Amino acid sequence: MPNVSCIKDELMKLIGKEYTDEEFEEIMISYGMELDEIVEEPERHSTVPVKTYKIDVGANRADLLCIEGIARALKVFIENGKPESFTVQAPKYTIEVDNKVGQIRPYVVSAVVHNVKFTQRAYNSFIDHQDKLHHNVCRRRTLVAIGTHDLKKINASKITYTGEKPEDVIFTALNQTEKTNGRQLFDILKEDKKLGEYLSIIDKSEVWPVIRDGNGEVLSLPPIINSEYSKISLDTTDIFIESTATDLQKAYIALNAVINGICMHSSTPLEVEAVNVHYNDMKYVPLLSKPTDVVPHLESKQMTVTMKYIRTIVGVDLTPEQAIHYLYKMSIIATKLSEDELVCNVPFQRADVLHPIDLVEDVAIGFGYNEIAQHYSNYPFTATIGSTLVDHRQGENLRIECASCGYVEMLLFTLCSKEDEVFGQQDVVLSNAKTSTFTHGRSSLIPGLMKAASFNQFRQLPVQLFECSDVFKLDNAADNDTGVTTVKKLAALYGGVSDGFGNIHGLLDKVGQRLNCQFTLKREDHEICIKGRRAGVFIGEKRVGWIGVPSIDILNAYKVPFPVTVFEIDV
User: Fold this and answer.
1) Any idea where the B5 domain is (predicted)?
2) Residue 314 domain-assigned (yes or no)
3) Do 74 and 31 sit in the same domain of this protein?
């Protein structure tokens, strides 16, 4: 879950009411958020500690990724007030989109917010909000990249979004002092811990996306960096927002989230100016029906839900008027179409509401989950007798057998890195990996045991390790909508002054006895093992795993300074 830092004084000011920490924690729980911790820490550009709430919000709630969004939602929830509606003013500016950018980053959306008055805290929140959106909704800028610019510094009479050769993109990048072209800039940013990870998104493309103003000045090089030329400061009052994207819907969500946050610091807090986005070629934008997209789209979305559906899921005999009341608390304006049907207007910032079940969930939150549990739940008058799953019992038996043979059980990470693919193809890839160490779902237990052997190399030899756990495997069965399933495997490692092939072979035979089956070995050479020191493990004609001595290259890759033998079987 994303974690948002909110300075308590600022949050209470935006909500318009003071609460104790205990009272606020209860409100958080009621709304479906969690007050993770309360800390004293300095703000950015300050050394004075202030009380700060660390709030966990749902990953699908882009509108809650900033202090302003949390305050806007809670103000309606606490006071049961009517949700605010925005006014979109007619567009004065147009972004011309050239087809050269179509193959790399085809979409762009935009908006203008006027009459902003920044304080240092509001400015910090504005920057932090964009970072949170980039890491969550925007999937580390691969789907969307947000750029914000001081409207008074640029010539907005003609704004272009096109693709250019890296050598032709010459500008002074944000927080840089000299002009560089794209390639030179990337050489500088490779050392930047924050921006360096994004360079690969466009690095190998023939043309790079560029946004320029009417003077031909570069505003941004998405999805990497903005220009110093249009940099926002504390004195900025009019903000030009642009979001380039490969996913149009995510671009709308990100743009609307920025608007929802920054408008709270405007003297006209419910007004935003639209921008025309004109595509010169519709070939690369199949999601649009016409060449000009007038953005942002802040109109509410209309959905219907039946009272029968609400009562069935929530378990409470609510009236339509009560359901409308609880939906209001969640910023959704509902009206009664009939005694059994409600028409709900979902505001633009609630992009998480996709199905009537989401409306039912909001009714339940508005009513209060604790109230349902304490006073209204009807528990079934039934009794069931549970039992251990067969595969779990089998796994427990194998663990006991391996431990009895002197092997130490490991419980290792389910995620691994791309380099671990030497022991088997990894078909599960994380779209939003936090570190390069954990980017894939493991397909083998061996890499984890090799790393454990490396970490335990200074202990007395021999090292005897095992793990019995799940790995990911492709599954194209018709009833599997994910295409992936998990299978339980057993793997063991023996390492010492010699490879100990005979010792671990003995463990394999013992496991076979426990499983009431006979393993046979058939030689099969493989590049990751020493030639002649690897075999497939078979039951009859069915291959169920392998046993072998990893090569010197593999030992060096995992920093294991002694010979080892490993086996892995599907249990």
Assistant:
1) 298-374
2) yes
3) yes
Task: Give the whole-angstrom CA distance, residue 507 versus residue 501.
Answer: 10
Q: 240 pLDDT band (50/70/90 cuts)?
A: very high
**Tell me: the pLDDT tens digits for 97-124?**
999 999 899 999 999 999 999 999 999 9
The residue range of the domain holding 262 is 87-295
Measured distance CA(467)–CA(450) in Å, rounded: 12
Whether 114 maps to a domain, the answer reads: yes
Which strand ranges, in their side-by-side order, compose the sheet holding 292-295? 225-226, 218-221, 208-212, 159-164, 94-97, 275-279, 292-295
Does residue 384 lie in a domain region? no
The tokens for 529 are: 């093992």
Angle at 271 between CA 270 and CA 273, to 5 degrees: 155
- Rounded to whole angstroms, the Cα distance separating 211 from 231 reads 14
Q: At which residue do the structure tokens 């057993």 appear? A: 490
Contact between residue 107 and residue 101 where contact means Cβ atoms under 8 Å apart? no
Q: What average pLDDT does the structure give for the chain?
A: 92
Please give the Cα distance from 246 to 244 (Å, whole number). 7
Q: Alpha-carbon Rg of the chain, whole angstroms?
A: 29
Please write the tens of the pLDDT for every residue from 317-372. Answer: 899 999 999 999 999 999 999 999 999 999 999 999 999 999 999 999 999 888 88
Q: Are residues 537 and 397 in the same domain?
A: yes
Residue-level length of the chain: 571
Return the pLDDT at 242: 97
Indicate if 323 and 439 belong to the same structural domain: no
Cα 453 → chain centroid:
32
* 383 part of a folded domain: no
Same domain? 476 vs 527: yes
- Reading across the β-sheet that carries 34-42, which strands appear in turn? 3-7, 49-56, 34-42
Looking only at the bridges linking them, the beta strands covering 94-97 and 159-164 are parallel
Separation between Cα atoms, residue 391 and residue 399, nearest integer Å: 12
Domain with residue 144: its CATH number is 3.50.40.10
DSSP letters, 424-480, are: S---EE-TT-SBTTB-EE-S-SHHHHHHHHHHTTTSSSPEEEEEEEEEEEE---TT-
CB 44 within 8 A of CB 124: yes
Total domains present in the chain: 4
The domain boundary, picked from 319, 351, 376, lies at 376
Tens of pLDDT along 395-452?
A: 899 999 999 999 999 999 999 998 898 898 888 998 888 888 899 999 999 999 999 9
374 Cβ contact partners less than 8 Å away, ≥ 6 residues apart: none
Residue 280: φ, ψ to 5°: -75, -20
Residues 53 and 105 in one domain: no
pTM above the 0.85 mark? no
